[in-house]
Design brief:
Distance between the termini: 50 Å
Strand order of the largest sheet: 3-4-5
Strand content: under 5%
Low-confidence stretches: 1-51, 55-69, 80-98, 524-532, 534-541, 543-554
Structural class: mainly alpha
Mean pLDDT: 84
Radius of gyration: 29 Å
Largest sheet: 3 strands, antiparallel
C-alpha cells in the first residue's frame, strides 16, 4: 500500500503523491490448535457433517505472520521532510511556522484565540506526528490536545485547520489500540463522518483515512464506526458513473477503509452492513487498479472467513467468476487475497464449493500448487483439502484437472507447512473417494511420500497419515488387494516407519500404528493366489478384481 501525501505546488494547486512502506499492525488469531479442533474444521466425510471441512485458524495465524504487509490494518501519513510545506496552506517562506515547536508551545498555540496561531500550532503538531521515527504520540495525548484537535475538525470557516487537525488525528489513530482509543474517546468518529461530505476532496480523503485507521483497530471500533453511520457517506463517495473518474489515490483510500469495515471477527461485522457494502465491492472487483483490486479481494477474504450463511451472502452476489479470474493473474498482491477468499468459500457447503469449481477455479491450481512462493503452495493445498472433503464428483473434478500429481509433488518436496496441507487433502480424499478414485491415488504414487512423512515431529500430521493409510487399506480389502498393498508398503520402507511408531510418546499415535500392524502385518497367512503381485524390476501391477476390472500399474 502506498503512502499518500499532499504537496503544495508553487501555483497553489494541491498534488497527491505516493511514497513507500507505511507502518502496519497485524493481529493474529491464536485459536484452538488441537487435532480434534483441526478435524472440526473439515466438512462432511465419513464422520459427521461438520467434522471434516476445516476453517482457517492455525493456517490463518501462520499466513498472517508471514505476510504482514499484504494488507495493512492502519497507515500513518508520513512526510519525508516534515518541515517542508506538505499541506494545502499558503505558508510563507519567512518561517511563519516554527520548524521545531515543543509540545508545550503547541498546547499554548492551540488554546490561543487567534486563528492563525491556532493553525500554526496545529500544523506543528501534525509535523511532529508525521516524523518517520518515534513520533511523540503519547506526549501529544498526555498534553490533552486531542479534544482541541477534534473541535478543529468542525471549523468549516478555516479549511486549513480542518485539514491539519484531521491529518494529526489520523496519525495518532495509526498507533496502538490505546492511542486509537484516545482519538475515539475525544469524539472523533462522528466528526470525521461529518467531514466525509466536505466539498474539499483533500479533507474528505483525510477523514476516510482516519476512519480506516479507527476501524482497523478491531471489531469494537469497527462496529462503532458502522453504528455512527459511516457506511452510507463512504459509499456515496464512489457513487459516480465511472470509478476511473476518481483520483487513483482517493479511490484506493476509500477501498482500503471499506476493507477495514469488513475486517476482524469475534464478532464479525453486522450482516446488514455487509449487504450494504457488497454491491460496491462487486463493482470495485472489476476495476483495473491493482491496489484497489488487492484491497477488494482482502475485503472479500474477510467476509468469507465465517459461517456458511456469511459465505452465502457473498456468493449470491455472483462475484465468484471474477474472483477466479483474479486468482489467475500474475500479481502476487492480488493472487494472495483472492486465493484466500476462494479457499474460505470452499470451507462452506458442497453447493458453495461447486460454484467455485464451475467458475473454472481448478484450472488455475496447477500453477498455484507449484508456485515458487511457499505460502501460495500452502494456501492452495489447504484449499484442495477442503475440495477433497466434498462429494465424490468433486473429487473426480480434482482428478480430471490433473491435480493429484501436484499434491503428491508437494508431499515429496514441498516445505513442511505445505506438506501438512497436502496430507490433509490426501486424507480427505481417501475418506470420501470411491474405490476407483483411491486406486488411482495409489497408482499416482501417493504411498511412498505419504509414509515418508511418518518421521515428522508433528503428532497431528502423523495421525492423519495413519488415518489415510487405514482408509487405503479399507479400499484394498474391498477388492482383495490387501496383500499387495502390504508388499508395496514394505517395499518402500513404510512398514519399518509404522513399526517405529509403536514406541511413539503420543498415545494416539502408538495405538493407531499398533492397530495397523496387528490388522494387516502380523499374521502369517497362506498367500491368496488372487492377490499375489506380478512383479517387474521396478513396479507392481495392482489388479482390481470383481466388477471393477480396470488394471492400475505402479
Amino acid at each position: 500500500m502506498e503512502r499518500l501525501l499532499w504537496l503544495e505546488l508553487a501555483n497553489g494547486l494541491i498534488l497527491l503523491v505516493s511514497l513507500k512502506n507505511l507502518m502496519s499492525k497485524m493481529s493474529t488469531n491464536e485459536n484452538a490448535n488441537t487435532p480434534s479442533a483441526r478435524l472440526n474444521r473439515f466438512k462432511n466425510k465419513g464422520k459427521d457433517a461438520t467434522e471434516m471441512r476445516r476453517r482457517r485458524i492455525e493456517v490463518n495465524v501462520e499466513l498472517r505472520k508471514a505476510k504482514k504487509d499484504d494488507q495493512m490494518l492502519k497507515r500513518r501519513n508520513v512526510s519525508t521532510f516534515p518541515d517542508d510545506a506538505t499541506s494545502p496552506l499558503q505558508e510563507n517562506r519567512s518561517n511563519q511556522v516554527s520548524a521545531h515547536w515543543s509540545v508545550e508551545e503547541i498546547v499554548k498555540g492551540v488554546n490561543n484565540n487567534n486563528t492563525e496561531i491556532q493553525l500554526q500550532a496545529t500544523q506543528a503538531a501534525r509535523k511532529l506526528l508525521s516524523r518517520e521515527q518515534q513520533p511523540p504520540i503519547d506526549s501529544i495525548i498526555r498534553a490533552g490536545l486531542i479534544p482541541k484537535l477534534v473541535s478543529f475538525l468542525g471549523r468549516a470557516d478555516c479549511i486549513p485547520i480542518q485539514f491539519e487537525s484531521a491529518w494529526a488525528l489520523t496519525n495518532i489513530a495509526s498507533g496502538t489500540s490505546e492511542q486509537t482509543k484516545a482519538v475515539v474517546d475525544g469524539g472523533a468518529i462522528p466528526a470525521f463522518i461529518s467531514l466525509l461530505a466536505s466539498p474539499h476532496t483533500h479533507i474528505s480523503e483525510q477523514a476516510v483515512w482516519a476512519l480506516g485507521n479507527i476501524a482497523g483497530d478491531g471489531s469494537t471500533y469497527r462496529d462503532l464506526v458502522i453504528k455512527f453511520g459511516a457506511i452510507e457517506p463512504l459509499l456515496s463517495l464512489l457513487a459516480v458513473p465511472d470509478l476511473s473518474s476518481l483520483a487513483s489515490g482517493y479511490l484506493r483510500n476509500v477501498t482500503w477503509t471499506l476493507s477495514n469495515l469488513c475486517r476482524n471477527k469475534n464478532p464479525a461485522p453486522p450482516i446488514e452492513a455487509i449487504e450494504q457494502i457488497l454491491p460496491t465491492l462487486v463493482r470495485l472487483l472489476h476495476h483495473d487498479d491493482h491496489e484497489v483490486l488487492a484491497d477488494t479481494c482482502w475485503a472479500l477474504s474477510y467476509l468469507t472467513d465465517g459461517s456458511n450463511d456469511r459465505i452465502e451472502v457473498v456468493v449470491k452476489t455472483g462475484l465468484v467468476p471474477q474472483l477466479v479470474k483474479l486468482l489467475g493473474c500474475s500479481e502476487l498482491p492480488i493472487m494472495t487475497p483472492s486465493l484466500r477468499a476462494i479457499g474460505n468459500i470452499v470451507t462452506g457447503t458442497d453447493e458453495q464449493t461447486q460454484i467455485v469449481i464451475d467458475s473454472g477455479a481448478l484450472s488455475v491450481f496447477p500453477s498455484l500448487l507449484s508456485h515458487h512462493k511457499n505460502n501460495i503452495q500452502k494456501e492452495a493445498a489447504w484449499t484442495m483439502s477442503n475440495i477433497t472433503a466434498g462429494r465424490q464428483d468433486q473429487i473426480q473434478r480434482v482428478i480430471d484437472h490433473g491435480l493429484v500429481p501436484y499434491l503428491i509433488g508437494i508431499l515429496r518436496k514441498g516445505d513442511f507447512k505445505s506438506q501438512k496441507e497436502a496430507v490433509w487433502a490426501v486424507a480427505n480424499y481417501t475418506s470420501g473417494g470411491t474405490i476407483e478414485q483411491i486406486v488411482y491415488l495409489v497408482q499416482a504414487g501417493v504411498v511412498e511420500p505419504l509414509l515418508n512423512l511418518l518421521s515428522a515431529k508433528d503428532s497431528k500430521i502423523v495421525l492423519v497419515i495413519l488415518d489415510a493409510i487405514s482408509n487405503i487399506f479399507l479400499a484394498a480389502e474391498k477388492i482383495n488387494e490387501t496383500e499387495k498393498l502390504c508388499l508395496m508398503i514394505e517395499e518402500c520402507g513404510g512398514l519399518d516407519k509404522i513399526e517405529a511408531l509403536q514406541s511413539h510418546e503420543n498415545e494416539q499415535v502408538y495405538k493407531a500404528s499398533s492397530t495397523l500392524i496387528e490388522k494387516y502385518f502380523s499374521a502369517e497367512e497362506e498367500e491368496d493366489q488372487n492377490v499375489v503381485p506380478e512383479s517387474t524390476a521396478a513396479s507392481y501391477t495392482f489388479q482390481v478384481q470383481g466388477n471393477t476390472p480396470d488394471t492400475f500399474n505402479f
